[in-house]
Amino acid sequence: MTTNRSVYASFFVATLVGLALAACGASGPAPGTPEALYVDLGCSKCHGANRDGQRSGPPLKALADRWTEDSLLEYLADPKAVMETNPRLKYMAENFPIMMPAYPNASQEDLRKLAQFILAG
């Protein structure tokens, strides 16, 4: 009998916690938005939530003078290959402790949204 009460009490507490979280609303950007992709793909971990840069990654501001949407898409698909052909990127990569990852599982549509978001900053 005591076990049943424990199970019911646990269920009740879990339900209350779930309702409280739902009432607070979701935090963060709406799913599927460029902002959500920036967070979900891990960009904010190295480049900062506001794209201001951190010790682990450079700022992603005012990039439109050096990048086109297509060149950024190429870079996101295979950063290592692009860095090997671009001395500026190779030099920058040497100044940060974490290598820019590729996104092989991200769709072209999502990478294009991300590139547009980054270039707009």
Structural notes for this entry:
Helix content is 60%, strand content 0%. The chain has a single domain, classed as Orthogonal Bundle (Cytochrome Bc1 Complex, Chain D, domain 2). The chain has 121 residues and is mostly helical. The chain is built from 7 helices and no strands. About 14% of the residues have low confidence. Helix 2 crosses helix 7, helix 4 packs across helix 5 and helix 5 packs across helix 6. The radius of gyration is 21 Å and the shape is globular.
Set out the fold topology.
Blueprint: H1 2-24, H2 34-40, H3 43-47, H4 69-77, H5 79-85, H6 87-94, H7 108-120
Helix pairs in contact: 2-7, 4-5, 4-7, 5-6
List key phrases describing it:
single chain; 121 residues; mainly alpha; Cytochrome Bc1 Complex, Chain D, domain 2; 7 helices; globular
Number of helices: 7
Gyration radius over CA? 21 Å
Arithmetic mean pLDDT: 83
Fourth-tier CATH superfamily name: Cytochrome c-like domain
Structural class, by secondary structure, is mainly alpha
What gap, in angstroms, lies between the N and C termini? Answer: 61 Å
Shape type: globular
Q: Roughly what percent helix?
A: 55-70%
Number of domains: 1
CATH class bucket = Mainly Alpha
Regions with little confidence, pLDDT below 50 for 5+ residues: 7-23
The CATH topology comes to: Cytochrome Bc1 Complex, Chain D, domain 2
Per CATH, which architecture?
A: Orthogonal Bundle
The total beta strand count reads 0
